[in-house]
């Protein structure tokens, strides 16, 4: 039915261009499966990211205070733009949403999770005398995964870095958890890390590097199609999305300017290449008021430039490589600002 992730798999995901993130998307495409994240794991990962941003802001403030004490003088601390923790978290959630689907929290699962913590039933921790129970979160994650997998019609894959709570110690599911799935027809495989899961994709292999010209020739059309469905392009242009306005963008041209990384995977005679590159994007930005009398009439701003990191998967075929769009993280080149009547008052070039 799918590929299931626990929160600890996401700890290093910041830009969503990380190799682990790309690998998950690639394997999902190769297997024709979706990637799922239980709601409890989603909340835990989101709060961990929030704390990391808050810690970064606190670090700046502490460094400022230390400098003032050491020099015995007052210094003005000006951060422009000022770090916005909430906006950063929302951007992280939006990018995560383009990679995974969140499994909703079921009330019966929640009650059962706390019951397992109280009793010390796996994957909750065994009870110790005179100590509180532990592992309710793990139990909630497991129950969401098990319920969703049991309703499926194919093998599932659960990636979790915690080797003790879900595993039998040999890499397979804990026997009590496996017993809970015994009535199902399809197996659920457990992996302690993304690299262990990568055996589904193949092993890293040497090969000819893709050039910028080759990348543009084989990937431009696939990227245009992928960006039409992505939320990255509107946010690369519009500084703030006004709820009273509709937005639309049309990608006209793409040009790779730097290959950041590429890795080739081989499995038998088949091979794929994962390419992460920086691209220049030329587009038209359009907007209209939501209460417009003619919904097909848009105000257009031509030839807006943006740049971003775009990841593609190149499948090696007899007629040449075939490209699939994986994802993008845009770095805006232009912000558009509006007056009260919705007309553009300024264009400002900024690197995000």
How is this structure best described in words?
With about 350 residues, the protein is an alpha/beta fold. The protein has 2 domains: about 1-200, 5'-nuclease (Rossmann fold); about 205-350, no CATH class. It has helices at about 20-30, 40-70, 85-95, 105-120, 135-150, 175-180, 195, 210-230, 230-235; strands spanning about 1-5, 35-40, 100-105, 155-160, 190, 205, 245-265, 270-290, 300-315, 320-330, 335-340, 345-350. Strands 3-2-1-4-5 form a 5-stranded parallel sheet. A hairpin with a 2-residue loop joins strand 7 (about 245-265) and strand 8 (about 270-290). Helix 2 packs antiparallel against helix 3 (about 85-95). The relative contact order is 0.12.
Task: Furnish the topology, listing elements before pairings.
Layout: E1 2-5, H1 19-31, E2 34-38, H2 39-71, H3 85-97, E3 101-103, H4 107-119, H5 136-150, E4 156-159, H6 175-180, E5 188-191, H7 194-197, E6 203-205, H8 212-229, H9 232-237, E7 245-267, E8 270-289, E9 299-315, E10 322-332, E11 335-338, E12 344-348
Parallel strand pairs: 1-2, 1-4, 2-3, 4-5
Antiparallel strand pairs: 6-7, 7-8, 8-9, 9-10, 11-12
Helix pairs in contact: 2-3, 4-5
């Amino acid at each position: 039915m799918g590929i299931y992730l626990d929160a600890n798999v996401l700890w290093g995901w910041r830009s969503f261009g990380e190799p682990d993130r790309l690998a998950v998307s690639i394997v999902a495409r190769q297997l024709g499966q979706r990637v799922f994240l239980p709601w409890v794991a989603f909340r835990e990962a989101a709060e961990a990211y929030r704390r990391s941003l808050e810690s970064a802001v606190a670090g700046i403030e502490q460094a400022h205070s230390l400098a003032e004490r050491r020099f015995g003088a007052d210094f003005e601390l000006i951060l422009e733009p000022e770090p916005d923790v909430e906006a950063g978290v929302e951007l992280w959630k939006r990018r995560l949403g383009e990679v995974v689907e969140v499994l909703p929290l079921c009330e019966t699962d929640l009650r059962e999770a706390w019951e397992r913590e109280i009793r010390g039933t796996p994957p909750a921790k065994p009870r110790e005398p005179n100590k509180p129970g532990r592992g309710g979160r793990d139990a909630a994650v497991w129950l969401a995964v098990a319920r969703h997998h049991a309703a499926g019609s194919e093998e599932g894959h659960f990636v979790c870095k915690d080797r003790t709570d879900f595993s039998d110690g040999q890499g397979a599911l804990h026997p009590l958890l496996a017993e809970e799935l015994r009535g199902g027809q399809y197996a659920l495989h457990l992996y302690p890390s993304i690299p262990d899961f990568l055996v589904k994709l193949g092993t890293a292999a040497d090969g000819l590097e893709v050039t910028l010209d080759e990348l543009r020739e084989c990937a431009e059309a696939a990227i245009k199609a992928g960006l039409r469905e992505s939320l990255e392009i509107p946010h690369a242009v519009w500084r703030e999305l006004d709820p009273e306005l509709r937005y639309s963008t049309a990608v006209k041209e793409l040009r790779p300017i730097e290959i950041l990384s590429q890795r080739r995977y081989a499995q038998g005679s088949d091979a794929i290449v994962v390419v992460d590159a920086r691209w220049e994007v030329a587009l038209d930005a359009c907007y209209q008021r939501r209460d417009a009398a003619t919904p097909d009439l848009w105000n257009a701003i031509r030839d807006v430039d943006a740049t971003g990191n775009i990841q593609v998967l190149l499948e090696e075929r007899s007629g040449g490589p075939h490209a699939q769009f994986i994802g993008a993280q845009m770095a805006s080149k232009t912000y558009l600002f509006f007056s009260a009547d919705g007309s553009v008052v300024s264009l400002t070039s900024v690197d995000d």
